[in-house]
Request: fold
Amino acid sequence: LKSLKEAYQNYFPIGNIMEVRDLEDDYNTAEMFKHHFNVMTPENAMKPDQISKAKDQYDFTAADKLVDWALNNGIALHAHTLVWHSQSAAWLNTGEAANRATASENMKNYIETVAGHYKGRATTWDVVNEAFANAGEGFDGSDWRTALRKDSPWYIAYANNNTKSSKTLTEDPSDYIYDAYVLARKTDPNAILYYNDYNEEIPAKRDAIALMVMALNQRWLTDDNYDGRLLIEGIGMQSHYWGDSFDAFLVDEALATFVATGAKVSISEVDMPVGAWNNQHNGKKLTKEEETQQAVNYAKLFALYKKYAKFIGRVTIWGKGDDQSWRASGMPLLFDNSFTAKEAYYAVLEPEKYL
Ligand code: G3I
Reply:
């Protein structure tokens, strides 16, 4: 089967996710990965709840296995993720740590330890993941902070013990985002720092994120640590779509909006289930029509990625065989359970043929 990374070698790296069990299974998953992909995101192993169960306790065993395997095989590491409301570590920002002083000190400890551990090995980092509300709710059209997820433990902790008005950019709960990027830059100056989120084709969410990236990059210009580079150098579009609601026009607009911020864009977690949200295909053989609908959607996406290739850092698919996907019931990937290529694979290989 033609290798995807070779098919895209003149455009951008092509990635996928790995779990430690993939290195040890009976399906030659690791070989399949090496054939098609040249950048790896650990699906779960590098999230705070996996790396740090308690303050001053860090366990890199699982993540290191994946990273060593990747780097030994010429596969780049995209590291995921440092600051997130989900799969986080409770000690960082809840309970006794649910205040600005403690949470920011714990963030420093966490980022220095974890980004420090992977210094020189991570090409790119998702520093902050999913800081914005699900679908752009709350956005007032001009202040990106109005669109933030206010129930994130990071936001709540930073809002506690606020000494100044939250109207100023110098001390408000959203500062946790800026702090995270400055800490990551100082810890691993060569890594390219990304902001990563989903539903970014929705105009309100898209615009709030673009404004945030520009605002924090502007704030960085007068920071004592300023090093001549952008602070947030990349925007990750997770790209978890739905077959029946997928709108390529909105994706095109989002790519254009993000590129205009001056940041690189990476497609960080793409998958495209067949049909509707509540479809339960669960490994059933797809009808010819379903296979084709999914393939055409993938073709539309990859045609756009080629169009913006100059600005794209990587395109990562969130899973290898359908049954391993977090949304397995929608059979959203390029390969079936036994890694036989679906029509979607051929559409990614040659999108032009499907449009
Ligand atoms: O680690 C525990 C294990 O100890 C326990 O025995 C087992 C029992 O269920 O659960 C394990 O945790 C699971 C974890 O994956 C690791 O395998 C969680 O239940 C499960 O919910 C978790 O799902 C992951 C999900 O993130 C969690 O939010 C998916 O595998 C992963 O694909 C998904 O990835 C996220 C990205 O990080 C961010 N963007 C959205 C994307 C999809 O949700």
